[in-house]
Task: structure prediction
Amino acid sequence: MNWAYWLPLLILFSSLGTGIAIFFLDEDQVLVRTVLNLAGAVVKLLLTVLVFVGMLTGVAYETRLPIVPGFELLLRVDAISILFMSLSAVLWLVTTVYAVGYLEGSPYRSRFFGFFSLCVTATMGIALAGNLLTFFIFYEMLTLATYPLVVHRGTRSALLAGRNYLFYTLTGGALFLAGIIWLKLLTGETDFAVGGILSDFVDSHAWSLRVMFVLMMAGLGVKAALVPLHGWLPQAMVAPAPVSALLHAVAVVKAGAYGIVRVVYEIFSTPVAYELGLLGPLAVLASVTIVYGSVRALMQDDLKRRLAFSTVSQLAYITLGTAIVGPLASVGALVHLVHQGLMKITLFFCAGNFAETLHVHKVSEMHGIGRRMPWTMAAFTVGALGMIGLPPMAGFVSKWYLGLGALAAEQGWVVGVLIVSSLLNAMYFLPIVHVAWFRSPAGPWDERMPEARWETRMMLLAPAVTTALLSVAAGVFAASPISPLAVAEIIAGRLYEGL
Amino acid sequence: MMDQATIYAMAAVIVFCFALWGLISYAHLIRKIMALNIMGSAVFLFFGAMTRRGEPETTDPVPQAMVITGIVVAVAATAFAISLAKAIHRRTGQLRLPEERDA
Amino acid sequence: MSDLVVWSICLPLLGAAATFVGPGRLAPAVGGAFALATAVTGAMVTWLVYDGGVMRHELGGWGAPLGVELYVDGLNVFMLGMTAVVALAISVASLTYFGVRDHAASGPGRWSSAGGYWPVWLTLWASMNLAFASADLFNLYIALELVGLSAVALMLIGRDTQVLTAAMRYLLASLMASLGYLLGVAMLYARYGTLDLYLIGAQLTGEPATWMAMALMSVGLFVKTALFPLHFWLPPAHSSAPGPVSAILSALVVKVSFYLLLRLWFVVFADLLSPTFGQVVGVLAAGAIVGGSVQAILQRRLKLLIAYSTVAQLGYMFLLVPLTIPYGGSEAWHGGAWSGGMYHMLSHALAKSAMFLAAAAVLLSVGSDRIRHFRGMAHELPVATFAFALAGVSLMGLPPSGGFVAKWFLVSAAIETGQWWWAVVILGGGLLTAAYIFMVIRYAFLPPSPPAFKPVPKLLQATAMVLALLAVLIGLRAVEPFALLEMGTPFVEAAHVGTHQGEVAE
Result:
């Protein structure tokens, strides 16, 4: 048995198999389904740890499956994939627990969890993809696997959201595909490689490369919700809370951001992209998105919509870091990939808890909610403070490195964007925290779970608290050798090794 | 200039075109089926024109074989088409396809 | 071993005779057995060619130019193999479909559908195999005519007025088309004195009679393949036929004339093909993609939607013509475009048959094919819905599916040869496809409402599922089919023609 060959496939199969098995379960086989789900998630987490350890000891995990000559499925583990894989594996486990609690008693759960697992499979495939073609295969698979989750409730607004989601993502996907094919024809390969694969073509095909870059960014920007391609994201809020959590923290939007990281660093490489004059516009676009998302978030009363626009804004930090030349900014981008996931999923879990327990959906209904649900609100506060970027939360680490990177690259204006954005973040998060803790409720709560021993179901509370703790830990223990920051530094070190 | 075979062949093509026009422009099913038969005959005429050609003139058996086979096919197809037309007549009381009118 | 090719034609014919003569209640069993045997034979021929190279078989020992010769290369067995797989699956599905339907409809004077179905279906299968194996223009005419007649006869298993008129229209179009083809054959024979595809191709010259023959044969086959704007007969025919028959018509029958067109163009008339010709076909193809898709989006009934989707998908296949013909300074045929187009045909055959079988299951269950009656389908008929969706994925050309591999190669060819406008058509067409697929899927996710769903045989849904899965899985492993397509494609025909001419000289 060649473990280095089979492990990537096994990692995919741990969720794919789970998903397929779940489709065949009856609606009322709750126990079997829950056990299957958790087993799949735990196995995936263990395998990811195994791969992580293996990679640290120097094992090269690589799977190649030829589709047709010159066209192969390549799964490969490197430091960037580890970063994304760990995030997805951990958050899948947590979200599964949460979803089991959240959907208790609602219809069509087999279908939901089946597609949920497929969604994670696609995300893992994206993390493992060793070339653009493989990336694209899983990227589109993710689109398809998420659609049933978005329309899960079957309401008119859910269907409308699903239609918009498909319109944006499939159109983006078609442009992305055109870019990939063009690239393949020009260079003959699409493998991700440190230093990019295009340095020989900069002089001869500058304009082709620029158009290709735009095509690919159009495809990736849709999922990464870069303005003006973000329209689908706030609408997709109609999905059940676990879906929003997964969409926003791990799967869809992160896949877009991750793709931007891959394409900029390992297809174009920073020097080439800089020489072609692509990074400046990308940085500007990201900055616009950051400010725009925050401003829009400020105007929302619906809690989930506020969080959605906050996602638009926060995700663009990753793109912004990628668009600034220099190792420090890269560290900021990569580490934010993980940090944003941890913080945002916490916030969405909490929003889901409020909705499920007390039927609170709006910010204006949250007065005094901290007294009724102290644990959830504490987790929410941790996430919110992290988003604002207060030390020692994880968000502070990201912003710190982004700022340092911008200064190192002599792009002081980026620091300005960071400061403005942090102020806006504070403006739309702090009032929530304030009224929740320090105001008294307007009236009696609309209790949905009066018999609960804790403030809400344990399966809803535990995940929120866990991810809140994780996002604190990621900030506090940032200096430890297995923190996201450490991995990000390794990656950035490799990316800028020869420069 | 124009040998006999060519004249026959040209005649065949002209008949074919007329029949095709008939097939398209008439709505009545029996007329359509007859038009098809005339088209078929035109093709057979063309084959017939080819049996005598070259110098010295010899008779080529292959087109004859094809014409005979073609006639068999045409008879079968016509029988099938007519029975289908009858079925339509029985069902709708009309001998035309819906949404079609005479040109 | 080349006898196997003959068996792939004779076995279904024998089966047709047996089911026709034998007692009606045994027909499904006997027919099913013969279908299995035919499929196995087809698969074996495919394997033999894949393993051992091009095969030829002279019927009765008479070789070309006089005799009837069966010639089998990669392209033929690609078609033969595709037909074997799809036809077998549809046969399995029809075992249950007609059982249920006959049980449900007990009106007086109604014949046992299964009794009529099997002889005609097996005849159709035999004729298709004959068409794929022939290398002789007249023999191809016979095959084509048999395919047309038996396809129309097969539709008549369904007996309502709609089917009758649709069948009549199909029959008239089909007969007209094959007579056009036959006149072309006559002209070619008059000019070249042989009926062998390869012999004519080797000595072809561009003079009026040849051009006219090419025009007649091409237009005739356009009608049969329902290339836009000559597709008028297809939507009513494919949508009104009973479920498995629709699958056969859409997945297989139109491919026969498409295959024949390719053989004609790239073997017989290869020297006459110019970039302009390619662009003209391309414009028709693009019209098919856009027009067919828009029509599909406008439909409110499922089977009409799927039928218009066939019109659109045929456009993709025809796009291989402008992309394959040398364009923009290149000298050689573009093999990638060729393989991509053929692969699209294969995935379409699998996906479309899956789709029609899934539709058949839904129709049996709901009793209506109005899309708005499908609320809650995802819950009530999960397997059929999933099969429909998977097949849709392949039609949209999303990865990982056969449709994606095909799209990749077609778009690559378009960009590589500088014909980027076809890339736009292909990618945009994918989005239109998504629009009409998700129009159906959307209803499936709505909460159920009456009318209630009746139970449907599991086997019917499972067959649809298997076909849909195949359509997707061939996107993950396309090495072997592509190798097969490269064996004796039109572009490496020189060797074959050489040996032929050698024989003639002897």
